[in-house]
């Protein structure tokens, strides 16, 4: 017995201008780490910027170096997090590249160096930082915590890059 079958194909194309936010990324460990790094970076930049002494009698190289590193990696982390949040494909593709390993590795090393230099300078010149000692010390400690988070991000990025 034979019978006939009719196959109908319909192609539908839709376009949208809505931006879809990848909220699932913020629930992953790399997303949580980037968000925490961003928040701690905002706090350190805010503290040091508010108490930054532009016209003092001593050199401010550690203070400026710390602020420069904190701002640099604050902006970089913000852009990485933003691109992973507004593009679903970015969050899956960028983690498989060497970029995140290199970025987080350099962030760890440079922020650790800046935080240690700044904490040593603040402790060494306590009397010079009379009113600003506590906020600067807190900013340096938060910078050390943030550098530890960048180390964790480097480890996660290395595992993702290797395919583990």
Explain what you see.
There is one protein chain. With 164 residues, the protein is an all-alpha fold. The protein is 68% helix and 0% strand. It has 5 helices and no strands.
Q: How do the SSEs run, as a string of H and E?
A: HHHHH
Cα shape: elongated
- The overall average pLDDT, rounded, is 89
Share of helix among residues?
55-70%
Broad structural category: mainly alpha
Q: What is the total tally of β strands?
A: 0
What separation lies between the terminal Cα atoms?
55 Å
Task: Please work out how many helical segments DSSP would assign.
Answer: 5
> Which strand-content bin applies to the residues?
under 5%
Low-confidence stretches: none
What is the alpha-carbon Rg in Å?
A: 23 Å
Characterize the largest beta sheet: strand count, sense, and whether it forms a barrel. Answer: none
Characteristics of this structure?
single chain, mainly alpha
Write the layout of secondary structure elements.
Layout: H1 29-51, H2 61-86, H3 88-93, H4 99-124, H5 133-162
Helix pairs in contact: 1-2, 1-5, 2-4, 4-5
Sum this structure up briefly:
This protein has 164 residues and is mostly helical. The chain has helices at residues 29-51, 61-86, 88-93, 99-124, 133-162.
């Amino acid at each position: 017995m034979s019978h006939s079958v009719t196959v109908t194909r319909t192609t539908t194309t839709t376009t949208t201008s809505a931006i879809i936010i990848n909220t699932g990324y913020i629930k992953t460990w790399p997303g949580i780490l980037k968000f925490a790094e961003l928040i701690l970076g905002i706090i350190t930049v805010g503290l040091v910027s508010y108490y930054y002494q532009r016209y003092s009698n001593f050199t401010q190289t550690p203070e400026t170096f710390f602020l420069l590193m904190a701002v640099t990696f604050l902006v970089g982390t913000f852009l990485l997090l933003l691109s992973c949040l507004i593009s679903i494909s970015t969050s899956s593709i960028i983690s498989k590249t060497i970029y995140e390993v290199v970025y987080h590795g350099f962030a760890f090393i440079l922020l650790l160096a800046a935080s240690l230099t700044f904490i040593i300078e603040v402790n060494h010149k306590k009397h010079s930082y009379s009113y600003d000692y506590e906020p600067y010390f807190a900013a340096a400690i938060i910078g050390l915590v943030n550098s530890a988070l960048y180390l964790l991000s480097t480890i996660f990025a290395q595992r993702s890059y290797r395919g583990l």
